[in-house]
Amino acid sequence: MGPLESPLRIRAHSLLCLQGYKGLGYSVEFVAQMDHVSEHLRANPDAQVQVITSADILCEHCPHFSEGRCTVDDPEGVPIPAGAPDESTLMDRRVLTWLDIAEDSVQDWASILQRIGSYVDSSALDPLCGDCRWREYPHCAEALDELHRKVISGAPLF
Predict the structure, then answer these.
(1) What are the residue ranges spanned by the domains of the chain?
(2) β-sheet bridge partners, residue 147
(3) pLDDT tens per residue, the chain (158 residues)?
C-alpha cells in the first residue's frame, strides 16, 4: 500500500472500530487497508485525521460500499430512497455527538485517542454501535475499556 494522504479522512464510527481492530474484515482488500491505516496511526500519533460522516479511506476498500453508501445493513430487496442515510452514517452522527467532535474537524490522532478514552468504554457500545455485526467479538469492548483505563490513569497511550 502506498503513502496515506494527510489529513486521513476517517468516519467517526471507524475511530472506534480502529480501537478493537484485530485483522478481521469484509474482504482481503478491506483488511489490508485497515492494517495499513491502523499501523500508520499507531506509528504516528501526530497524524492528522479529518473526522467525517461519509465514505472514508476504509470504505473505499469494502465490498459493501456501493453508489456512495454502505449497503451492509440494507434490507434485501427493499428499495432505498435516494439520499437516505445508511446505518454507518447514523452511527457516525451518534459518535460525533458522544465525543463532542465537529464533523469535518481535523485533529491529531493522539488527541482523538485521548477524547475516545475519556468519553467511551464498553458501556457506550449499545447506544453508539447498536446492532453492529462486529459486537459479537469481544475486541471492541476490550480495547475501549483498556483505552479508557489508560486515559483515566494517565498511562501512556503509545
Answers:
(1) 8-151
(2) none
(3) 677 889 999 999 999 999 999 888 888 888 899 999 999 999 999 999 999 998 898 888 877 777 777 777 777 777 777 777 778 899 999 999 999 999 999 999 999 999 999 999 999 999 999 888 888 889 999 999 999 999 999 999 99
For residue 140, give the nearest of 122, 117, 114, 128 by alpha carbon. Answer: 122
Residue type, 77: G
Widest CA span in the chain: 50
Query: In terms of residues, how long is the chain?
Result: 158
CB-based burial label for 50 (10 Å; 0-12, 13-18, 19+): middle
**CA pair distance 149, 42, nearest whole angstrom:** 18
CA 123 to chain CA centroid, Å, is: 17
Q: What is the DSSP string of the chain?
A: --PPPSSEEEEHHHHHHHHH--S--SSHHHHHHHHHHHHHHHH-TT-EEEEESS--TTGGG-TTEETTEE-TTSPTTPPPPTTPPPHHHHHHHHHHHHHT--TT-EEEHHHHHHHHHHH--GGGHHHHHTT-GGGGSSHHHHHHHHHHHHHHHT----
For the entire predicted model, the pTM comes to: 0.88
